[in-house]
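Self-study notes.
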Amino acid sequence: MSVQPVLISGQWLPSAGQETFQAVDPSTKQPLALRFPISPWAEIEAVIRHASEAAAIVRSWPGERFASFLEDYACRIETHAADLIAIAHRETGLPVEPRLKTAELPRTVNQLRQAAACARDGSWATATIDTKSNIRAQFGPIGPVVVFGPNNFPYAYNGIAGGDFASAVAAGNPVIAKGHSSHPGTTLRLAQLCHEAAQATGMPAGFVQLIYRTSHADGYKLVSHPLIGASGYTGARSTGLSLKDAADKGGKPFYCELSSVNPVFVLPGALQERLPAVVDEFVGSCLMGAGQFCTNPGLVVVSEGASSEQFISAVAARFDAAPVGTMLSGGVESNFRAGLVALQQAGATVVCGNKPADHHRYCYANTLLRVSGEDYLKKPHGLQSEAFGNASLVVVARDLAQMIAIAKTLEGNLTGGLYTDTQGSDDAAYHDLAPWIREKVGRLLNDKMPTGVAVVSSMNHGGPFPATGHPGFTAVGFPGSIHRFAMLQSYDNVRVHRLPPALRDKNPTGKQWRLIDGNWSQADVP
């Protein structure tokens, strides 16, 4: 059986790797036909060298060039949507509707186009001009960017199509895409379309390249290589931390999304006012996509009382009655089971689920656990273990003071939220509790479950460690996400004709916002 090629310096070439792997259909546990290579270090090093050569070529290109490429690519994805959806469905088990067709693929195209708009406008670079000192600065490309795609978003976070990819390109950087073993066929098809777009818009040969898998040791060498500008990673905490450690030792920025239980505090007034609605929203959020979202609500905090017991009973009944979703892989299922074991070892008890569901596919029963506030506070670290999948832990706090104590123990999370009543009875509790949650999360929600990330400029899909490696950056939302893959470049007394166009006296587009002597302006320098 032939092995699929890698994309190196504008060519589809046979890999030099001798080892191969196959994706597995999670709905049948059967391997799929295509074989993919594991790239050896010599091949990876060649990819790095070609990316560095491409970076030198595009270093001074205007944003219009990158925008044209991204928009052409977006159109090609739309044209070949049916093909892409069929491949991803086989490789991931994710439903065609609404997940792949209506939600994720349109989001991916939207991200590419938003990134293109930012690249064309140029305001993301925050060009700053001080005429008195004759010092001028802007954010510019950082160099080749490595993007590691995760298993749970075959399009929107894919190494060669997702948000990190779009952000890196918008900043003017070549991308080395590292595919995920759960959906290599999807990545291959995206890469083919990406390569066509790159050729059609005149991008240099090494601007976008693709490898599917490396050894762990070679992955560490890749992210820490002197010619690499930065890396973006979404995936398991242990792997991400190992890569980050290697990148840190090499002095290379490494932006990672690692782990989050996304706590939701449900205040008493909310349950008394609209308990069935809160149950509906929580069950829908927790079980959507078999719970395989980084924003899945894995920790719910309620206060003691009849309403909270009704909430727990109603959720358990819904969990038992709901279909059990297919998990992305055998690894996800085994890690999910291990997470449930860890929670129980830390003191949680099972309310429902926690049993095999269907041995013909990768899945496990919808599971709800509970623990008292007192027991939680004895082992808060262990009870924040992430069970990535269709499960959640309910912590029953004694009172508001204990809720606050629980909030103070939280690790960094992508999101955190509070459910409150609409008549004001929870206002005082919200005032006391919200500040403690605020400092532990990237995005604070009110009366809304966390699953779902809007691709808007105000979004923060980030947060304190261990949600991510750096609390100051977002992986979603333009232009904010672009800054991860840019460096601040200052020019002191450089002659005007030698400056980048955005720092010259004349506004290069007439629309770009620049900070001129302390005032934001679209005008030329007076």
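Second protein, same conventions, sequence then structure:
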Amino acid sequence: MIESSKPKSSRRHFGKVIAGGALLAPSILAQQRESDGFESLFDGQSLRGWHVNPEKIGHGTGGRWQVEESAIVGEQDPPGSGNGGLLLSDRIFGDFDLLFEVKPDWGPCSGVFFRCTDQGEGFQMYIDYHDNGNVGHLRGEMKGAFALMPFKIFGQTSAKGELLSLETKIDPRATKWPEGVYRSICSMAAWLKAWKLNQWNTIRLRCVGRYPQVQTWINGTPICDFDGETCSLPGYERERVYRRLGPKGSIGLQVHGGKGWPKGAKCRWRNIRIKEL
């Protein structure tokens, strides 16, 4: 059963709610050639140009990363141990457009970090693909962390653990938000329509500005629009965040630490391309 209703109060707490539809022509989400200004961050064959966190962070010593079928595959090291970490781009970026495809197993808690430090602090786009998780909205992963999760996803699985369907529910924390946390977010129904179950999904993440203006899309559907200069979330302080992260950082792929990551589960990324703005 898929639940797609949203309370009338969501507009007050979240800012403008967008029902769906692409903001860009479909071609922007197709595979980009270097002549389009996009360049590959992953060569499809090796982890050249990437490194794990050099010192142990809250998620662990780095996680296990390998290339399988032209995709970067991440899992805990060893599987089920609770030891995770980040795979970080050697190059650092400030203002950029990022395109990639992602295919997580059901159960892992993952994400894509940006303006990220080697110490594992940065902004994060959730790929929390599990009950009480979210994909496409944002978090600040740092001392004084802040969560920007307006709703959560829940899965129904078969007796064999295969994911059959998803439903969404408002995150109780979001009911207490003041107006202006996001400039806009998608409706829960739009998210459910956009996400392709058990398939590769195309993500676009755009970040610009000293206090980041961040937009995300899933398969062409706008998911969120965040203004780091005006965000009203309690606990978010733009100057503190800027001092900790600075204007640039790595792109990071996450394997979350802890026992919540199912043993043997993996998250996969491919066709990772970026355009500096």
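Instructor comment on the second fold: Residues 1-13, 20-33 have pLDDT under 50 and may be disordered.
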